[in-house]
Amino acid sequence: MAYLSLYRKWRPSRFEEVVGQEVSVRILTHSLDKKRLHHAYLFCGPRGVGKTTTARLLAMAVNCEKGITPQPCGECESCRTIQEGNSLDVVEIDAASHRGIDEIRELRERVKYVPLQSRFKVYIIDEAHMLTTEAFNALLKTLEEPPEHVIFVLATTEPRRLPDTIISRCVKIIFNPLPEEAVVKKLEEIAREEGAAIEEEVFYLIARKAGGSMRDAEGMLEQILAWGEEEPVDLATASLILREIDSEDFTRLLELIIKGDKGGALLLLNQWIQRGLSPEDISHSLESYLRELLLFRLTRKQDKKREKIRKEWQSLTKQVSEEALQKALERVSYLEFELRRSSQPRVLLELCLLDIIKCLAQPGLPEEKLPEENPVKEEVSQKPEENNGNFWPEILQEVKKAKISLYAFLQAADFREVGSSHAVLSFSSNCQFHKESVEREENLSILKEVLAKRRGGNWKIECVINEKAPEVEVEREREDRKEKREEQLSHNHKSLMGEVIDLFSGVLVDYSLSEEIAKGGWEDAELEKSDEGSPEDAS
Predict the structure, then answer these.
(1) Which of these, 141, 87, 89, lies nearest to 114 by C-alpha position?
(2) Phi, psi dihedral angles at 83 (to 5 degrees)
(3) CA distance 462 to 438
(4) Average pLDDT over residues 515-534
(5) Which H or E run includes 155?
(6) Cα–Cα distance between 149 and 295 in angstroms, integer?
(7) Other beta carbons within 10 Å of 196
């Protein structure tokens, strides 16, 4: 017999073998047990969770020679042909390649004919969301009132793309992503039956990377089995095969981050990239690891079998706060969005790593550096900096993350701290709209929350109009223009005086620029003329 891939070889042949879908299986088995069969089912869920397999089991259950039963025998002619995919009465249609109205018209003609060998004719339409709008419209009447011998099963990963008229005609059954423990248990069973020696942590790595898809997990296990069977496959080897980062490497990275060792963290990141990992792979793995670490920090729950990982995480979570982990996770989550649009993803990844170091390493520094014996002196020394509003740009950046429109309004304000948790925002007279917008209750709440988070305390904020601000600005501009004009005139007149001195080979004894010349220039000045040698005397 030809080689079969693991996901085909280990495809469930009974409802009891379907992994992680207890609710969906119970709905179907109880319906079969009570002979309450619907003419159309809609199976919804992510890829690789058992939708098509369950549809085949349903076809076996309604066509078994023992009768309609939740436990098909798997030995009769009908069950065997359905399992092998050779049954003439169970038709699987790939809607991705047969999505037009012509295919649905042909289907409408076929459903009129009775089954050739079985009790029911079952049509399994996979990826049903790929059908065109015209094809759905053509299917409506047939789906609503099909012949008594026909059962439709529609499987889709995107039920939101199906028309409501189609969904309302079906019994909707939702298939959820598989839990990690269920995937690990199934993978251990497969490896044991295949005679492979694999460390336990490898199964958890596969389950985490599969993201709830059993078919993806079995495909990864097949890659590891192809590596070799002479010696047990450890976590480092599996990480190399799957191009994944194991928990030990992440633990080493987090230790460097907590210490604030930026150089060491960047060098470790460079090693991962040299192993062939892309920035997208590292970002996804780092996000998953930080999420698990945060959940462990909040719940303290971990599988008892993973005692080594549990001890490492307990040691790490004692050194970082919940808020710091949350900020780091938010930063990495935003990184995945940035990487899709960047031509230099590695640079963004390195910058993100430096930001994470600030989040996780910074909380430990104040406890070591702040003197405990004289906190009053430290507070007094920081007060001038606070009153000067040096922290205001940081407050604006936090507000920008919360509400961009409020950030724009605050750009027109001058911040002044007049007392303990008391601030005044000054607006010029032409910024009345900005002042009224900031004074709205929802905007003040955001600003107070940011100030309390950054500085502590319950803040009181006043918004005022500074009437003198425009006059001061106008006067300042007037003085600046006057100084520039005088400087330019002085420069021009000095140049002219220099030419006169050079012409007569003279020496400058005294020089002053009269007010009239400064205002009107040499041409408009009234120069005093001496009576001696004037034209009137000559006449």
Answers:
(1) 89
(2) -60, -40
(3) 10
(4) 45
(5) strand 150-156
(6) 51
(7) 16
